[in-house]
Specification:
Blueprint (H helix, E strand, L loop, with lengths): L60 H20 L4 H4 L13 H7 L9 H11 L18 H4 L4 H17 E7 L4 H8 L4 E5 L20 E9 L3 E5 L6 E5 L5 E10 L7 E6 L5 E5 L2 E5 L2 H10 L11 E3 L10 E2 L4 H8 L5
Parallel strand pairs: 7-10, 9-11
Antiparallel strand pairs: 1-6, 2-3, 2-6, 3-4, 4-5, 7-8, 8-9
């Protein structure tokens, strides 16, 4: 059976210091999404990419799936309107979704002709971050790129990949751990993060609506992002069709979760401020100031777009404003336009 690049992680005996869910080094659990949709939301699902050319497979399924686990989470943050999209723009594709550089990450993590492990790739993301896709893009699926050509890089290009990855590390940090492999565990952790798992590619892969289970060794790493109990699990692949469904009894191997945390530097800065000894109030959003006429307009804004921890009664008084003011006003005539620009949550 063809291996698409998955190498099983070391056993606990071989690598006793693995991070395990529920252990002393465990990631703090937080419910981020809820059933029945979980991560199966169009705005969250990464743009599809194929991991092979016409003549060769990159053997980088662990990298492609790991980047998708990251992408799901950042796409949700974008949809929730908590990130500064000006800073994030280099990583956004034409669908306004996060698109990281699998090729650079595959090289940095030392993907071999037989593939890679989740532990190795997770540690590489921790160490080097993720560059934007365009820095060293995946070749077109109809190209004749060989495995060796895919994993060849100049010193200058490698430096560029690392520099962009370092910039990503200023905005985000990650932690990963192996999780127990049971139906209840997978569902529990799926509420926090998409699951980074391995499977066999059973007969029906790529053409069955719900792929029947088989009992073969794992050969491929993909991303679990939803489930319908007793029917199927949603699985995001790097071969078409990208969005697959695995039968409920389909064997899942080596599930991990890789959690992305935004640093303060990438979060939108929202402050309600008034200069001392004046009555004029400004909402500082993403480095620009907007004049708010009165409490009524502010409450109108909060009804349309919740703004946590900011109340009219708790205006910050400052000696001077550190952000520019270009005559912009938050009022009934331009309220929706401003919300669309800065929060992206008005449909």
């Amino acid at each position: 059976m063809k291996n698409d690049g998955f190498i099983a992680p070391p056993t606990l005996k071989e690598e006793p210091d693995q991070w395990l869910a529920g252990g002393l080094k465990g990631i703090k659990y937080e419910e981020v999404v809820k059933p029945p949709t979980y991560w199966n939301v169009p705005k969250y699902i990464p743009t599809g990419e194929i991991q092979r050319s016409m003549v060769a497979d990159t053997q980088a399924c662990v990298i492609f799936s790991g980047v998708r686990v990251v992408s799901f989470q950042i796409n949700k943050m974008i949809a929730d309107g908590i990130l500064d999209l000006v800073k994030l723009k280099p990583w956004l594709d034409s669908n306004n979704k996060f698109n990281g550089c699998e090729r650079g990450l595959s090289i940095l993590s030392g993907t071999s002709r037989t593939g890679n492990t989740q532990m190795n790739v997770g540690n590489t993301i921790d160490d080097y971050g993720i560059a934007p896709e365009w820095v060293y893009p995946n070749p077109a699926p109809n190209s004749k790129t060989t495995w060796k050509e895919y994993h060849t890089i100049s010193k200058a290009k490698l430096k560029e990949v690392k520099n962009w990855g370092k910039k990503w590390g200023e905005y985000f940090h990650t932690r990963f751990e192996r999780i127990p492999n049971s139906k209840s565990s997978l569902e529990y952790h799926l509420r926090q993060v998409p699951i980074w798992w391995a499977t066999a590619c059973c007969p029906g892969w790529g053409y069955k609506d719900i792929i029947p289970a088989c009992y073969r060794p794992p050969c491929h790493a993909t991303t679990g992002y939803g489930e319908r109990p007793n029917e199927y699990r949603n699985d995001l692949d790097h071969y078409t069709p990208f969005e697959k469904k695995l039968a409920w009894n389909y064997p899942i191997y080596y599930p991990y979760k890789l959690v992305v945390y935004p640093n303060e530097s990438i979060k939108k800065k929202i402050m309600l401020q008034r200069k001392k000894n004046t009555k004029e109030v400004f909402l500082n959003i993403g480095g620009e100031r907007y004049w708010i006429k009165d409490a009524e307009d502010f409450n109108q804004l909060k009804k349309a777009q919740p703004i946590d921890k900011i109340e009219w009664e708790n205006i910050e008084e400052v000696d001077i404003f550190t952000t520019p003011y270009n005559g912009k006003i938050i009022g009934s005539t331009n309220l929706v336009d401003i919300l669309k620009k800065f929060f992206g949550k008005i449909n």
